[in-house]
């Protein structure tokens, strides 16, 4: 009898708690809030959050821009000396996964559910770009299971698997786009122009084909052949460059926001010396004149110097206003880069295009972006140090692409590791035994929240160190 009474009482408690839970859910429901996010809002938010993160302090100003020696730090130089903790890259990793990728995954599904394949295709294209940024920086990453809500500890996929998967995802996106189909909204990049999105997908697929070219040359060539034959084409004008254009505060470029209150970044001496040596007029855009006049007019700061003085502030050049103004765009994939990619593919025998002509066109396009006149362009191209060297295309393309990609720290970091040019020297007082970082270390949160997957990835890829080379970084 006691057992029966207990059972009845327990049942009543469970039923009561269930009813309370339902009442609480109903009570806390906002009657004015949509249960399903609108596709245009999802797209706009995903692009904005990704652009902000791509150009964030964690990913660029205190990391890739320093590694690639575009910028240097005049104060608090730990990052410029390669001193990081496992919390240094936490915010960048989390933002990509929990904001941009999460939004895009919902957008892809909504496009399928609402019979608007263009949202699905745009979501796939942007998702592929973000995953590529992550694997470029870290190596093995959660990819296949990353956006599955039933997988709270997603497995890491090795870099080869990720790149090949992304190349396939982009092919799916290209076959999904429908220029004559339903329009899309919330597009701050192309204003809903589906043909421009298709060109971006092709250009990104081309970029990823070159990422794997030293490891999987046959697949790289096949992919590039497919892209060049695709009727959508590639980026063919500056207006088709992929970029997010910022406005005034509070929607300013994240780099501009930092410069409102800080003054501890300078242009690297490596870059300034290179541009001076080549009489490169882009220096006037990449760097500001020194606050106190110097014979050189522009003066770079050596990377990783700890002994600074107050005089060095006014005797070294800040990054140019072109890149630190509020409306400076977040460039994702430029027309100039796409031309350099085509030049490299031709150099490798992956296409029958004219490598030297494309190389010159890529440099010309970079100059024109800054409004530099034709006479200056021709004088620059005529220099023996600039002319295309077919016997060492890595040097010609690597050095000129590095100059053209100024400001795009993450992309330049990937290309420098892949092409091995320019041949940079480690930071003056770097702490990596004469080496430059080859990757980002995983955020500490992964070691505690997703430890088993993290441990398995590190065991396969190599130690979770800045100096561990990634799969695509062959030489």
UniProtKB/TrEMBL annotation:
Protein keywords: Lipoprotein
Pfam family, one: SusD-like_2
Gene3D superfamilies the record matches: 1.25.40.390
Keyword hit for Lipoprotein: yes
SUPFAM superfamilies found in the cross-reference section: TPR-like (SSF48452)
InterPro entries associated with the record: SusD-like_2, TPR-like_helical_dom_sf
PROSITE patterns tied to this protein: PROKAR_LIPOPROTEIN (PS51257)
Protein name: SusD/RagB family nutrient-binding outer membrane lipoprotein
Annotated organism of origin: Pedobacter punctiformis
């Amino acid at each position: 009898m006691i057992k029966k009474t207990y059972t009845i009482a327990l049942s009543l408690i469970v039923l009561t708690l269930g009813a309370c839970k339902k009442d609480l859910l109903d009570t806390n429901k906002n009657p004015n809030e949509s249960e399903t996010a609108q596709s245009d809002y999802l797209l706009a938010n995903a692009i904005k959050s990704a652009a902000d993160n791509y150009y964030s302090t964690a990913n660029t100003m205190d990391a890739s821009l320093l590694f690639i020696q575009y910028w240097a730090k005049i104060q608090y130089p730990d990052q410029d000396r390669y001193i990081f903790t496992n919390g240094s890259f936490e915010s960048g990793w989390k933002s990509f996964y929990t904001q941009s990728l999460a939004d895009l995954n919902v957008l892809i599904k909504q496009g399928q559910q609402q019979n608007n394949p263009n949202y699905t295709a745009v979501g796939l294209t942007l998702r592929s770009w973000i995953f590529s940024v992550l694997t470029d920086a870290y190596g093995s990453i959660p990819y296949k299971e990353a956006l599955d809500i039933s997988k709270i500890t997603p497995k890491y996929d090795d870099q080869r698997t990720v790149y090949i998967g992304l190349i396939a995802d982009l092919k799916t996106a290209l076959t999904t786009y429908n220029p004559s189909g339903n329009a899309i909204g919330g597009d701050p990049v192309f204003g809903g122009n589906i043909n421009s999105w298709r060109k971006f997908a092709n250009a990104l697929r081309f970029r990823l084909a070159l990422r794997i070219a030293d490891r999987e040359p046959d697949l790289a060539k096949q992919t590039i052949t497919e892209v060049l034959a695709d009727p959508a084409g590639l980026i063919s004008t500056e207006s088709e460059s992929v970029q997010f254009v910022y406005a005034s505060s509070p929607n300013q470029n994240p780099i501009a926001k930092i410069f409102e209150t800080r003054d501890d970044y300078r242009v690297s001496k490596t870059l300034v010396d290179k541009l001076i040596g080549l009489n490169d007029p882009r220096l006037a855009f990449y760097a500001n004149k020194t606050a106190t006049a110097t014979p050189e007019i522009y003066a770079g700061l050596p990377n990783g110097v700890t002994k600074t003085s107050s005089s060095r502030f006014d005797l070294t050049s800040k990054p140019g206003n072109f890149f630190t103004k509020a409306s400076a765009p977040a460039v994702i994939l430029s027309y100039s880069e796409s031309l350099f990619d085509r030049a490299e593919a031709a150099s490798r025998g992956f296409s029958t295009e004219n490598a030297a002509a494309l190389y010159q066109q890529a440099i010309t396009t970079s100059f024109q972006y800054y409004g530099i006149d034709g006479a200056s362009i021709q004088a620059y191209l005529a220099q023996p140090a600039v002319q295309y060297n077919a016997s060492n295309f890595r040097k010609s393309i690597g050095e000129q692409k590095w100059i053209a990609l100024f400001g795009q720290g993450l992309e330049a970091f990937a290309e420098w590791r892949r092409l091995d040019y320019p041949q940079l020297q480690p930071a003056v007082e770097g702490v990596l035994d004469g080496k430059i970082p080859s990757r980002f270390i995983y955020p500490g949160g992964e070691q505690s929240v997703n430890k088993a997957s993290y441990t398995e990835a590190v065991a396969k890829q190599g130690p979770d160190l800045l100096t561990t080379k990634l799969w695509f970084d062959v030489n």
